């Protein structure tokens, strides 16, 4: 089993290697001096028409077996000698135009396709003969459209016309015109030779005339040169005499300037000596002054070191100590402030907790009263009623009445005496519960109000002391 597996792998590897080698052999590279022509089923071109071949220059292509095949076109230039004789010109003069044309297969895309269609498989000689026939016909056509003078004198125009006509025809078969060389042009009648002799004679005459004119110009130039020489010599002599006189004047002026400058130099030298002496004394005084100033600064520095520096040190010491005390006080104050802040924060938290608990209790109380806030308030009032009554009692508990004097006749309305009315009025001064509730915006229940009673008319009671009014008779006075 293992041997069979090894053989199978070996066969598969061999088959894969053969495929790789075959693929590599079918991949064709195009050298720079050739055109690779792939023909067969090569697809369609840019104009969506089926192509007969695909031309590649300077690249490579994969040649599919059976579907494709390939061939090469040689780009080597072909030199063709054209000995055109008895060509009829525009003047009906027959001329001979020996020339040499250099052509080759073009590498332009469209022209390469023409070469693939018309030159593939032909030898260099066959291509040369085909091109020669085309060149002969076009060269005769160009000669027939030009005059002898144009062909002979204007070679550039002749070459341009030949190149234009010949290249247009060569492109049709895939060739390109590389070079045109016209060696010589002759005619049977000797017209070109006569034109040459005429041109030569004209050139000789023009040369002789030019030589005579040059000789004349030479003689005139020589005479003018002699004249110019004499004028220049006389002018030079005059300028020389003027120069000598100016030189003498210049020498005299120079001597005077020299003597004046020597005197000035002597004067400056004496003055300079005196100025130098004065500057020396000035510098000596300045040096002494500077020395005294330095000594004074030294003494001042000594005094500063002995007095000012210790005082400055003491001052800085005091400032440092004061700053330390101030910093200590700031820190103590900051600590106290932090303590107060923490205390107040704790109190605030306690108040917040109390209010939160009260709010929770109020919420439960309202829920217990079936969500009726009025009943809840009445329940709270009923709970606080003993305290309210106690507060009313406390209002008159500590009132001290040393003495009460009442004058009355013993008769009163509704059987009440003045003393009873006085006590009733005194108790009436205490705020009733009903009024207290109304001032708070609430209503006291009816069972706490009691029955209404008619107001009784009371006799006026006058409270006087023994010092202010005389005492009434003993039988009318009650305490």
Please supply descriptive tags for the structure shown above.
three-stranded antiparallel β-sheet; 10 helices; Tetrahydropterin Synthase, Chain A; four-stranded antiparallel β-sheet
| Helicity range | 55-70%
What fold name stands as the CATH topology of the domain at 77-189? Tetrahydropterin Synthase, Chain A
Given this structure, which CATH class of the domain at 77-189 is correct? Alpha Beta
Mind telling me the C-alpha Rg?
74 Å
Average per-residue pLDDT, rounded, comes to 76
Structural class, from helix and strand content? Answer: alpha+beta
How far from one another are the termini?
A: 148 Å
What's the count of strands? Answer: 11
CATH architecture tag of the domain at 77-189: 2-Layer Sandwich
Largest sheet: 4 strands, antiparallel
User: In percent, how much strand structure appears in the residues?
Assistant: 5-15%
The helix tally amounts to 10
Shape: flat
Low-confidence sequence ranges: 451-479
Per CATH, the superfamily of the domain at 77-189 is: Band 7 domain
Order of helices and strands: HEEEEEEEHHHHEEHHEHHHE
